[in-house]
Amino acid sequence: MADLGGIVAQLKAERAKLDKAIEALTGLTGKSGGSGGKRRLSAAARARIAAAQRARWAKFKAKKAR
Fold it and tell me: ∠43-53-36 over CA atoms, to 5°?
């Protein structure tokens, strides 16, 4: 049987090289994954969010007026 210690050392060295390569490539993109780009909301989603926020403010102002 071959020298297992030597084999383990070689594998660790190779893993270190791969880790450095992955780090370098990740640094180029600035992200580790995903398709990138900006997320955009539909008009309907923006309207729902705006209505919910208006309702929150109305509730807050009603409490404050008491």
Answer: 50
Among the residues of the chain, which ranges form H helices? 4-29, 43-65
| Cβ–Cβ under 8 Å, residues 11 and 5 | no
Contacts 24+ apart (CB under 8 A), 56-59: none
**Residue pair 18/25 in contact by the 8 Å Cβ criterion:** no
- Can you tell me which residue has the tokens 């994954």? 33
The confidence score (pLDDT) of residue 27 equals 76
Q: pLDDT 10s digit of each residue in the chain, 66 long?
A: 578 999 999 999 999 999 999 988 887 766 555 666 788 999 999 999 999 999 999 999 999 887
